[in-house]
Amino acid sequence: MVENVLTWLLNNKIELIGAILGLFYIFFSIRQHILTWPIGLLASIFYIIIFLQSGFYADMGLQVYYVVISIYGWYFWLKGKHTNEKEKIPVKTTRSVLWIKILSVTLAIFCVILFILKNYTNSTVPVMDALTTAFSISATWMLARKYIEHWIIWIFVDLVSAGLYIYKDLWPTVTLFLVYTVMAYLGYIEWKKDLKKNKEATLLK
Questions:
Q1: pTM above threshold 0.90
Q2: Whole-number mean pLDDT of the chain?
Q3: DSSP of 36-56, one letter per residue?
């Protein structure tokens, strides 16, 4: 039994390391800690390998995007700290005009990815793969800019993604995304508290 477990761990070490890094990433996201970004960058590198081997090409491309957005988010959170002379930049809500822009861009990304997956890959789940990828791109940008509603998008994306990974027998990743779903809800609650504090502090000025 122990030997079987050790064998499985060795055969799936890349996925397990990626899953562990992913948990730390979401934890630091909830805490609004700057370590969110370097850890997220490392997790993305591991998942580029995982998704390439599993044939999730859109998700693999998404991880490349995550590497780039991690550098951007890292810079933005540090820049915000120095510019505003605060410990961290404030949480914001997404206004209606911005929502229209985000959803329009998300739809455009979805259409492009779906076209590529259907015509240039052997993806077995092109629609759902494209959908989760498009929303993930938007949600990660919203995280970098500290828009609280990105957590709501992640709850949807994480649940759908968990179903896709069940289909591909990526069980450590299934577990990770189910935990992500719960943590995304907790993240929304925590950021909402912070948003309330910021509003109260602004009123007292």
A1: no
A2: 85
A3: HHHHHHHHHHHHHHHHHHHT-
Instruction: Give the separation between CA 78 and CA 180, rounded to whole angstroms.
Output: 25
Q: What are phi and psi of 72, to 5 degrees?
A: -65, -50
The three-state secondary structure class of 157 is: helix
Which one, of 119, 107, 108, 131, lies nearest residue 58 by Cα? 131
Q: Is 86 exposed, middle or buried (0-12, 13-18, 19+ CB in 10 A)?
A: exposed
Q: String of b and e for 12-29 (b: at least 16 CB within 10 Å)? A: beebbbbbebbbbbbbbb
pLDDT digits (tens, 9 = 90+) for 119-139: 988 878 889 888 998 999 999
How many C-beta atoms lie closer than 10 Å to residue 70's C-beta? 23
The DSSP H or E segment spanning 14 is: helix 13-30
Cα distance between residue 199 and residue 128, in whole Å: 38
- Give the residue extent of every domain in the chain: 2-204
